Amino acid sequence: MIELAGLTKRYGRTTAVDHLTFTVRPGVVTGFLGPNGAGKSTTMRMILGLDHPTEGRVTIDGLGYERLPEPLTRVGALLEAKAVHPGRTAHHHLLCLAQSNGIPLGRIDEVLDLVGLSSVAKKRPKGFSLGMGQRLGIASALLGDPKILMFDEPVNGLDPEGIQWIRNLMKHLASSGRTVFVSSHLMSEMALTADHLVVIGQGRLLADTSMAHFIEENARTFVRVRSAEPERLRDVLARAAPEARRRPDGSLEVEGLPAARIGELAAENGLVLHELSPQRASLEEAFMRLTHGTVEYQAREG
Asked: CB-side exposure of 44: number of CA atoms within 13 Å?
């Protein structure tokens, strides 16, 4: 379990992380979201002892990272896949990590096989593609068979097969009782992977909740309904659902009224419906709505 209490990091007059307090629990995949510049990378670096907080504290199973004996057997992390010695082979990169943390050497071949790099174990990572480098970084994180895993942009450079593989791997790790903390900008992938979300903006905590609750609270949901008589349909719905927007294709987007009730009203008034479909809000829409005011760099439309 990872626990943050008032975690703060300042660089001069700039506050990168502002009194963050949350807990990353075992048994679920916790997604870590925020716009560029929100403080996600700084937070993850402080968890791993790579940066020291200005205020507050962060503990891993009750201890600071620097106090963990043989830390790779407690925490596995992928922050920068290319952070490897260019002169070492993939096998020797993992060998150095294993020897420094008391990890059985047989584990090296296990993780190379797990990530699909057995055939290039004797090759140097400087010649690896982005996806291969990412797989080696994941192998490094898994090497000590840790109970806590942290991934920053884990699908970066992976092909569709690799993306599905890492998604299933993270779910499997969480289902086996491990703590899995993953940061990503790919909302579609996070929606398929994460059970719980921690969202920050400008270094401050914006949300700490389940995926379903986050979408429900922060995104617009509606029912799309279409009929051959759109104006009469709108008049019928106006009494029960004032929020009915006309779309260019002639359909209506109705808020505040369930699809079943819309169908009943149409039947009561002799209206034939060509479409009646509830629209589930997306994680991306919910994220954009919540973080709109915290985005550091915004492009203008048009």
From this structure: 26
Q: What is the pLDDT of residue 54?
A: 96
Q: Determine the average pLDDT of the residues in 3-13.
A: 96
Distance (Å, rounded) from C-alpha 286 to C-alpha 214? 7
Instruction: Please give the Cα distance from 199 to 51 (Å, whole number).
Output: 20
For β-strands 244-246 and 222-227, DSSP reports them as unpaired
Could you give the dihedral angle defined by the CA atoms of residues 190, 194, 198 and 199, in that order, rounded to the nearest 10 degrees? Answer: 20
List the 244-246 sheet strands across, edge first.
244-246, 252-254, 222-227, 273-279
* pLDDT per residue as tens digits for the range 49-91: 999 999 999 999 999 999 998 899 999 999 876 677 778 899 9
Q: Within the chain, how many helices (H) and strands (E) appear?
A: 10, 13
The pLDDT of residue 300: 47
d(CA 113, CA 177): 23
Contact 3, 149 (CB under 8 A): no
Give the separation between CA 9 and CA 12, rounded to whole angstroms: 10
Q: Alpha helix locations (H) across 28-175?
A: 40-47, 90-100, 106-114, 130-142, 160-175
Spatial CA neighbour of 120 closest among 158, 93, 84, 91: 91
**pTM, full prediction:** 0.80
Closest by CA to 92, choosing from 132, 130, 121, is 121
What's residue 302's pLDDT?
Answer: 45
pLDDT score of 22: 97
**Signed CA dihedral, 76, 80, 81, 87: sign only:** negative
> By CB neighbour count within 10 A (0-12 exposed, 13-18 middle, 19+ buried), where does 122 fall?
exposed
